[in-house]
Amino acid sequence: QVHLVESGGALVQPGGSLRLSCRTSGFTFGNYPMAWFRQPLGKDCELVAAISDTGGWTNYTDSVKGRFTISRDNAARTVFLQMNNLKFEDTAVYYCNAVLPRTVIQPRCIMTYIGEYKDWGQGTQVTVSS
Fold first, then answer.
1. Concatenated DSSP letters for 23-83?
2. Cα of 56 vs its chain's centroid, Å
3. pLDDT by residue (tens digit) across 30-86?
4. What are the φ/ψ torsions at residue 51 (nearest 5 degrees)?
5. CA–CA separation, 84 and 14 (whole Å)
């Protein structure tokens, strides 16, 4: 069974930094591209950042380019998201999961199928507030 555990979220002031972690089990982690998604309260799910299976390729949504960095440790089966210069609009629940070319992101992150599976973690809350 796929198991995803996100951590590292917190309350932070604008301009601050956080490092999110996501530990995984139940699938061959090193074979899959991974991504961070976020769900702001009352808004649709958004894919924030993605990384290839080897870590050699990354991609970001425009609003976080230059501020967020996704990375992975295949030996530890863990994916990270370094978040710098945080803004109010970064407030959301953040989730990690594998991502496939045919993944169709649903309005609610946890309703998105990754291949045949719809396994999601609890997410981690990031709140940016002064």
1. EEESS-GGGS-EEEEEE-TTS--EEEEEE-TTSS-EEE-GGGTTTEEEEEETTTTEEEEEE
2. 17
3. 999 999 999 999 999 999 999 999 999 999 999 999 999 999 999 999 999 999 999
4. -140, 140
5. 10
